Amino acid sequence: MTDHLPRLFESDAAIMRIGEGLLARTLPRAEWTHEAHLAATTYVLLRRPDVDVDASLGDIIRAYNASVGGVNSDTEGYHETITRTFLAGVRLFLAEADRREPLFELVNDLLRSPIGKRDWPLRFYSPERLFSVEARRSWVRPDRASLP
Question: Highest taxon of the source (predicted)?
């Protein structure tokens, strides 16, 4: 697994700006990083109970991508399996976390954890399966190991 150093957050306001920016489609495209994906997911799970994450996260991300000039296709943009895998990971991390405040420290702990690494889904999926068109379009089950 890679040892990419994550970009960490300095305040709860930074997390809120990303989460609300995603929902409102106002977050600058350059700020929609791996770290921002996990920060926004954590924010929405913990601070926006009005958002049904399971039912709407895919649509939220696809709409955001389109709003900043991105494309949701068979080769780029929204990826259902990666999104659902990281959503399961964030939920697992939160279930095991011993605190919820401050939010930015919780997100930074997530980013430093194995779950926060960019290649975490490859513990469960072969690259061929994870990066397939089928996995991008819809949820596919892991072929290496079950998700925790």
Answer: Bacteria
Q: Is the dihedral of CA 15, 18, 19, 24 positive or negative?
A: positive
Q: Flag whether 143 is in a domain.
A: no
Token code pair at residue 66: 């389109």
Residue 98 pLDDT: 81
b (16+ CB within 10 A) / e for 43-70: bbbbbeeebebeeebbebbbebbeeeeb
Q: Could you tell me the residue range of the domain that residue 127 belongs to?
A: 12-137
The whole-number average pLDDT for the span 28-35 is 97
For the chain, the first-to-last Cα distance in angstroms comes to: 18
Residue 87 lies in a domain: yes
Within a domain: 39:
yes
pTM more than 0.85: yes
The answer to whether residues 33 and 4 touch, using CB atoms and an 8 Å cutoff, is no
72 pLDDT band, cuts 50/70/90, is very high
Domain count, the chain: 1
* 4 in a structural domain: no
